[in-house]
Known about the structure:
The complex is a heterodimer of chains A (346) and B (344).
Chain A: E1 6-8, H1 10-47, H2 59-85, H3 95-121, H4 123-139, H5 152-163, H6 190-197, H7 250-296, E2 306-308, H8 315-329
Chain B: E1 6-8, H1 10-47, H2 59-85, H3 88-139, H4 152-163, H5 190-197, H6 250-291, E2 303-305, H7 312-328
Antiparallel strand pairs in B: 1-2
Helix pairs in contact in B: 1-2, 1-6, 2-3, 3-6
Main location (chain B): membrane
Transmembrane segments (chain B): 21-43, 63-82, 103-126, 255-275
Family (chain B): Belongs to the PRPH2/ROM1 family.
Amino acid sequence: MAVMKMKFPFQKRVKLAQGLWLLSWCATVAGATTFTLGCLLKTELHRRAEVMDNTDIHIVPNTLMIVGLASLGINYFASKICQDALDAGRFPRWKNFLKPYFAISCFFTVLMLLTVIMSYAMTGSLESSLKVGLRNGIRFYKDTDTPGRCFQKQNIDRLQMEFQCCGNNDFRDWFEVQWISNRYLDFSSKEVKDRIKSNVDGRFLVDGVPFSCCNPSSPRPCIQYQLTNNSAHYNYDYQTEELNIYLRGCREALVNYYMGLMNTIGAGVLSVFLLQVHTVLTAIHLRFLQTAMEAVAGNENTEIETEGYLLEKGVKETIMEYLDPVLKFLLLKNQVQEGETAPVTA
Amino acid sequence: MPFMSVKFNLQKRVKLAQGLWMFYWLSVIVGISIFSLGIFFKIELRKRSEVMDNSESHLVPNLLILVGMLACGLNAFGGKMCHDALDPIKFSKMKPMLKPFMLLSCGFSMLLLLVALLCFLMQFSIYLTLAEGLKNTIRFYKDTDTPGRCFMKRTLDITQIEFRCCGNNNFRDWFEVQWISNRYLDMSNDVVKDRVLSNVEGKYLMDSVPFSCCNPGSPRPCIQHHLTNNSAHYDYDHRTEELNIWTRGCREAVFSYYSSIMTSIGVLIIITIILESMDVAGLKYLSTSLETMTDPENPECESEGWLLEKGFKETFADVLTKLKTLGRANQVQEGGDAPEVSPP
């Protein structure tokens, strides 16, 4: 009892094979695109690796690259099958590869969809990683003479200028750390001594921000020191005036940037996913072709009409047929069959 | 005796036509890249037109766009001609168009040469425009409330950050202008009044620079005010210490950027000229080899192709006499009848 039997005249077989071949090539290109998108995302994440605490988020581009490569290989393989499909002499050698091809193809298609879902699910992880990374970056801003931290200042400055942001949550994060190195503080000065004594840890805290927080679009020359002191600047009110530093926090800016990037890439990957699903569905047609070709095999007249079907036996029996080797491998089917002789024990 | 003649059989002719077709399409791609480079250059000039006083000359990018489009069209047509050349019917139809097309290609190569020259010479013009424009931009930096100059501050800040430069020649240009607007100066303050009275024009001059001059790579938090005052900062000597602002002037920085763009475009145009000349030479060989077929009905016959029908000197003399007769066409020939004046 076959599932979904269809009649296949020669013309239909030819058209099916050609259509499948074209679709496989499109899917190959789409697989290459997915790989490229994965590489792009990885490069962008790597560029800002200094302000990220862990590399958990890298699983998204890594999976994309793997899926892209696999999809490239599978679809190239499928197009090769289609090319040989109509040649009754060359087709039989592909017979053994069709079942694994279906299985692997379905697996990677599902994996593609999972990657897109994962990129949304990992927003929280990215945010916490950035929170810790930026906090450390701001803390070690002044350590330009400590090996391993020499470039923190430069990285944070360039980050703040490029993403137009200041601090971790906002600019007030700079008030809580000492970002001016002790090498440049005059410890004999009364003002410096007062400030250091005024807090428990003995840090030189100021209500100022680095120059990289300055906003070039502001009409006023940048006020970066004594931000909360209204009398230090002419015609300046800290509460009411629009500050001429960036108000946005860098964590928010970076999360928005990466989420935007992943949304765009996700849209691209989703369209590739749809194409891949389409290809798998047509591969099911290939199954029809395979069964139709089997009827032609051994027959000299290749232009006869043949029948093709989706599954040779019913659905349940076919599933059992697929699962049997897997279960046997897992030693779940070690039982002795009824009516069989028991294994002879030596 | 033809100049540089080569014998052709059928195989050679076919190969020549195919090779020439590929060359023409390569030239089309080069034409497209010239077109896109022209557009890119135009956009780059527009982006920074404020630091050039909006008076920069767009001659070079406009010419590049025009030349790119012309190159595409000409070479696509040439490619089509090569494609049709081996078919005798189509070849006889296009024979009259060959000579004008080759003359047009030569003229186009002359135009390309002119554009390449311009690419190299207009760099001087850009240098002068930049010098003048930057001087004005620095002067109007503070006028963020004057219509038409609102964005000078922003443009100059972004330029200084992007090109890692400060001022026109160097950072000392900022010491000579008042770059803080009077709106933000407390005129009742003694310090301010002293400074304003200390110079003839009543400008508030300082030895400070804007924040956009700061170098993020410097290990020290940016010192932008009181640059020449050693006692204002701890452990600071402005003569010996490596300043943590950019020391390069913006004129030099922006000019080197534009200069590199123009030089690479110039080199690409020279490559295009060489490609064009090779195309014309190939087309001449192809057309002469097809015309001199001893037996037009038999495609496999031998033929000869050349660049010039007579030798180089004789062709040159021919061209000169032709030009002379063009000029003398209106004169009465010796021994000819005088034009009759018919009585009214």
